[in-house]
């Protein structure tokens, strides 16, 4: 029989993937399910982007590219970081991989040793702790209270840092909460980090264009230039341009780290798809109205859903700054009894109750390291969101 390596047995399959699969299975079994687990845009990839992919195929751009990505895509990324964040990178300081996820994994693989600590603010994206463990490191989860907007505060950061700390992960706007750091908050974190030169900052900004509040998303190296030489900014086209299946992500940062990531990629995948790279370059350099239009739609949905959820006595929900998720608190439902006589003891009990009683699929907060909450995706139509809210309201009203 096959016995997996430690690095595999120590990690688990992403709970969001598992929840989405459960929703699909129930639907295939004929159940009427409203699926709020989806972690990708419900929009199609823009036509201009698809056309660039097709043109690349026809032009014979169907071979290996440089390990670190095509010059055209790296230039597009470089200009995007300059235009939106005011950051100047050389083309050689950009690396391209098969999704932001692969780049994050490679960055950890390139830097984490046995015993290296990686500070992960909770609620966190489910993949960070397992990515750290798979690379032999130690996730150090620090809870960030709803009262702090689910964000890391300087004192908590200071207390979590040890001589073994290798990275701080900053995911802004966040999956699952939609919370984003303001300039002042980044300055305060930067102040702590400037005293601890061993700590690098892994900025996952994959949702930074899906932005609802005033101004635009901020990045720590633009606000605190003194730590730019130990900051990696990870982004990609999956979420902003509805390109999850094309699998293109990228990062910009200090040359030695980028070189290490490229070295690993050269032995792992050689390069991401040439066709997808051509499409991603078009996404970044072509018309940007898809981003503007889709964000306006997400914003309307977020406003609608937040208002509906906050009208349910058992729930409360912070308005997100960006991304396309909501992370409502379900403390008001915990301890109550369902019509079948079950006492809800946890957010997992609550999401199972929603699934079984009213057919709403969502993900329990424990999976994101913070309870009692649950995650709802709003990357689905207004009608589906209305229906989900009606059903959640009904399920909550039946609790005693
Ligand atoms: N980071 C966060 C916070 C995410 O939610 C995701 C996708 O769900 C990713 C990174 C990776 O996206 P991709 O690999 O499609 O670029």
Q: How does this model look, in words?
A:
Belongs to the class-I pyridoxal-phosphate-dependent aminotransferase family. It catalyses: L-aspartate + 2-oxoglutarate = oxaloacetate + L-glutamate. Its EC number is 2.6.1.-. Pfam families: Aminotran_1_2. The chain is of the alpha/beta class. It folds into 2 domains: 147 residues, Aspartate Aminotransferase, domain 1, CATH 3.90.1150; 223 residues, Aspartate Aminotransferase, domain 2 (3-Layer(aba) Sandwich). 40% of the residues lie in helices and 12% in strands. The protein has 14 helices and 12 strands. Strands 2-8-7-6-5-3-4 form a 7-stranded mixed sheet, with helices on both faces. Strands 9-12-11 form a 3-stranded antiparallel sheet. Strands 1-10 form a two-stranded parallel sheet. Helix 6 links the parallel strand 3 and strand 4. Helix 7 packs parallel to helix 8. It is globular and about 60 Å long. The model has no long low-confidence stretch (mean pLDDT 96).
SSE layout:
Elements: H1 6-9, H2 15-28, E1 34-35, H3 47-58, H4 71-85, E2 94-97, H5 100-109, E3 117-122, H6 127-134, E4 138-143, H7 154-160, E5 165-171, H8 183-194, E6 200-204, H9 220-223, E7 231-236, E8 249-252, H10 255-268, H11 274-285, H12 289-310, E9 325-326, H13 347-358, E10 360-361, E11 363-364, E12 374-377, H14 382-397
Parallel strand pairs: 1-10, 3-4, 3-5, 5-6, 6-7
Antiparallel strand pairs: 2-8, 7-8, 9-12, 11-12
Helix pairs in contact: 3-11, 4-11, 5-10, 7-8, 12-14, 13-14
The structure holds pyridoxal-5'-phosphate (PLP).
EC number: 2.6.1.-
Family: Belongs to the class-I pyridoxal-phosphate-dependent aminotransferase family.
Organism: Roseibium algae
